[in-house]
UniProtKB/TrEMBL annotation:
<keyword id="KW-0472">Membrane</keyword>
<keyword id="KW-0028">Amino-acid biosynthesis</keyword>
<feature type="region of interest" description="Disordered">
    <location>
        <begin position="245"/>
        <end position="270"/>
    </location>
</feature>
<keyword id="KW-0997">Cell inner membrane</keyword>
<feature type="transmembrane region" description="Helical">
    <location>
        <begin position="70"/>
        <end position="99"/>
    </location>
</feature>
<feature type="transmembrane region" description="Helical">
    <location>
        <begin position="206"/>
        <end position="228"/>
    </location>
</feature>
<keyword id="KW-1133">Transmembrane helix</keyword>
<keyword id="KW-0813">Transport</keyword>
<dbReference type="InterPro" id="IPR050480">
    <property type="entry name" value="CysZ-like"/>
</dbReference>
<protein>
    <submittedName>
        <fullName>Integral membrane protein</fullName>
    </submittedName>
</protein>
<feature type="transmembrane region" description="Helical">
    <location>
        <begin position="140"/>
        <end position="161"/>
    </location>
</feature>
<feature type="transmembrane region" description="Helical">
    <location>
        <begin position="167"/>
        <end position="186"/>
    </location>
</feature>
<dbReference type="InterPro" id="IPR059112">
    <property type="entry name" value="CysZ/EI24"/>
</dbReference>
<feature type="transmembrane region" description="Helical">
    <location>
        <begin position="24"/>
        <end position="50"/>
    </location>
</feature>
<keyword id="KW-1003">Cell membrane</keyword>
<keyword id="KW-0764">Sulfate transport</keyword>
<dbReference type="Pfam" id="PF07264">
    <property type="entry name" value="EI24"/>
</dbReference>
Amino acid sequence: MSDLGAGFGYLMKGQRWVAQHGRWFGFGLLPGLVTLVVYAGALIGLGYGADDLVGWATPFADDWSSPWQGLLRTGLTALVFVFGLFLAVITFTAVTLLVGQPFYESLSEEVDRSEGGEVPESGLPLWRELWISARDSVRILLRVALYGIILFACGFIPVVGQTVVPAIGFCVSGFFLAEELTAVALQRRGMVLKDRLVLLRGRRLLALGFGVPLVLAFLIPVVAVFLMPGAVAGATLLARDLVDPDPDTEPRPATAAGGDVPPAPRAWSA
């Protein structure tokens, strides 16, 4: 359980880092502001249109008497909006990181530089980094969508669907949010998506301690924008210690089981 507290500690360290480096905090705000405007419009549209969508999808309930029709459609409308919010929380980070790739790469490198030691660089052109980030984000989103569908279906289970399922949903969101954020630093260290997932699964509680509080905070859209620079900084600090716990040794990617990952050239293949 100590890993939960340690994960939250990295989140706080990241926020302190950007607070002490005000220029980088402002620099890291820009991508989040752009993404926020787009997502706010999408969620407002979903809020206004969810009831119409549910009404269209449940024609069989048109002749139901009160209160059964209202209970069914109100419950489904709430589930649709929660599902949309669930996807928004996950995709917000992916889209923001994609939009802000140059910004967050620079911020992450500065965190590495300020902490001392080698500052890994991918050595790839920007277009190639964007392609890799977009490809990995799609793979993560497909996983999230699968979990989202399963959890959405489980939401109809009485009691469990209103208590256990939301808690599991936050944990799923937190884990993949941690993966998206640490990817900025781990990609520069030559780690492919598969190896990053293995690394984080080996320290699942650490990832949840970092990611779940962010998911809860990101439910407030404006908060997400202001926390993103510190989240990237904290994820970089977390990635540094996951890959190379001893600061006196040269950074070296390692899997969660302690073995070496494939060399960097493979990381950029396919």
